[in-house]
Amino acid sequence: MILFTVGPVQMYPETLKTEGTQLPYFRTENFGSMMKESEELFLRSVKAPEKAYFIALTSSGTGAMDAAVQNVLNGHDKVLVINGGSFGSRFADITRRYGIDTDTYDIPFLCPFSKEEFEKYSGRGYTALLVNACETSTGQKYDLDYLGDFCRRNDMIFIVDAVSAYLADPVDMEGQKIDVLITASQKALALSPGVSLIALSERAKDRCSGHKASYYFDFLSYIDNQKRGQPPFTSAVGTMIALNQRLKAIMAEGTEKENALHAARAEYFRKALMNLPVSIPDIPLSNCCTPVIFPEKNAGTAYKTLMEEYGLVLTPSGGGWKDIQLRVGHLGNLSEADYDKLLEAMQHVLDKRKDD
């Protein structure tokens, strides 16, 4: 079985070895030193400003999205959410759940983001912008440089879900003026699900009101405990250990090399895909995945056949798009040979469909 999914992804041998060993007790100086090292490595990997804060939650990426809203925003805010798919919609669902005044900039499925249209939201009293760096349900990548400048021009807090974009696309927290950056363990880090990582600017930290936030997701408690490298509650110990190993390996080479690796995988697959009777939407795409459009509306059948007959797992789409789009991931332990195998299998599946 080979995973061409967008999370969990194909894991690396060293991670599998680490996560399969006996867990240590974690309330120790050694564990604390390791977590402080992970803090330094992660903040460096996202090019965080000098004064920034690291939070490691035992939760999914959605938990971190929820926590960011609870801690950084409140009922006095008026927020704008870029809604280009299911994950943009999720951000809006979260803010509305907490009674926060929320507007959405809605992007039709597989249509590009328009800066000209978005500028109409300038000067309208918004206090925060929430966006997915890439909308994983479509693969669309947003221009974080532009959006960061938009936020500073309008004195808005900039909250970015980079769960799928981290390491696949360039992320520069300071340069892109990001106040809250979120990612998770099961994407390009290629670890088990269940850990989310957050970087906070000083500006965002000053907005955190610990007495009002969730007991479990109180950012100020995590920041205070991280001074000794400890979580306030029991964490996903094995994944935290594997995280430290992955961050050390990544930062030994640098995030630019990691970005280039994902870009090369995406380019290799997309170029070869042109030989098949499918298409790729004309939108700015993240290196995390490639959305593949099936004009014969046989995406659902292709997904099932590729998994059951070839052991190749892609990411299906939901709702009305389940027979139109599949997504092919470029995260994790994948090679060009793996993509060759996938492309050959896709050719066989599509040829068989044509014959039928």
Which descriptors apply to this entry?
3-stranded antiparallel beta sheet; about 15% strand; about 350 residues; alpha/beta; 14 strands
Quick synopsis:
This protein is an alpha/beta fold and 356 residues long. It has helices at 13-19, 29-45, 61-72, 86-97, 115-118, 144-153, 202-205, 219-226, 237-253, 255-273, 299-310, 336-355; strands at residues 2-3, 52-57, 78-83, 101-106, 128-132, 134-135, 140-141, 157-161, 180-184, 196-201, 289-293, 312-313, 315-316, 325-329.
Word description of this protein:
Helices cover 40% and strands 17% of the residues. With 356 residues, the protein is of the alpha/beta class. The two termini are 27 Å apart. The model has no long low-confidence stretch (mean pLDDT 96).
Largest sheet: 7 strands, mixed
Q: Choose one word for the global shape.
A: globular
The side-by-side strand order for the widest beta sheet comes to 2-10-9-8-5-3-4
Q: Kindly provide the radius of gyration, computed on alpha-carbon positions and rounded to a whole number of angstroms.
A: 20 Å
Q: Roughly how much helix do the residues carry, as a percent range?
A: 25-40%
Number of strands: 14
**Percent strand:** 15-25%
Query: Helical stretch count?
Result: 12
Structural class: alpha/beta
Mean pLDDT score: 96
Low-confidence stretches: none
- SSE run: EHHEHEHEHEEEHEEEHHHHEHEEEH
State the end-to-end distance: 27 Å
